[in-house]
Amino acid sequence: MKPKLRTILIGVTILFSILGLAVGIIYSPILDVDKVVVIGAPGRESEVLDVAKIKIGDPLLVGSITSSDNRVAGLPWVESARLDRKLTGTARLIVRSRTPVAYARTPEGSVGLIDNEGIVVAIVPTPPPGVPEIKNPGPVPVLGQKISAPDLVKVAASLGPLGARVAEIAITDRQATLYLIAGPEVRFGGLDRLAEKAQSAEAALGAIGTKGFSYLDVRVPSGPVTG
Residue 169 and residue 225: Cα distance in Å, rounded? Predict the structure, then answer.
């Protein structure tokens, strides 16, 4: 055998040996899953784990685990999910939950919680405290789909701290009005400068209270008016 050919064969043999060793390590207990941790979904860890389908003893670097975060991200209430793997054998699923900014009632009497993108993130028996209702949003779609009321969602998403005071949000002829849990109605008017209007209303209500007037008009955010 010629020296050059012998060198090539030796090189190929070494390469395949290295590849075989690497594959063996990847699929060996040295690099398998010893522990699965869910971060960012308190009280819903079991739901995340059921969807992720990561099992103790699975390969850490290849196989089904590589798409586990995509499966978790498909849950209606999940905004994003990321898989973080440690060579110590720990697989961490880091979850960011969608936050409801409003709710709408279903024909059955339950409540659809809606996030700032208009997605129904949960169907629950009763609304949580501090989340306003949007009036006349149209049919509430199934879990995980968007409602057909983008303007109402836009107003709800702009409220910030003011949202905790609001019972209902209504829009008539593209004029938004907020009805407080206790106190006057707040007139936003048009659908522009919503965050400024919310900040103006919150500051005014904090300064003068909620009694002695029937409405607070913040259509001009820099000059709120009561009446």
Answer: 19
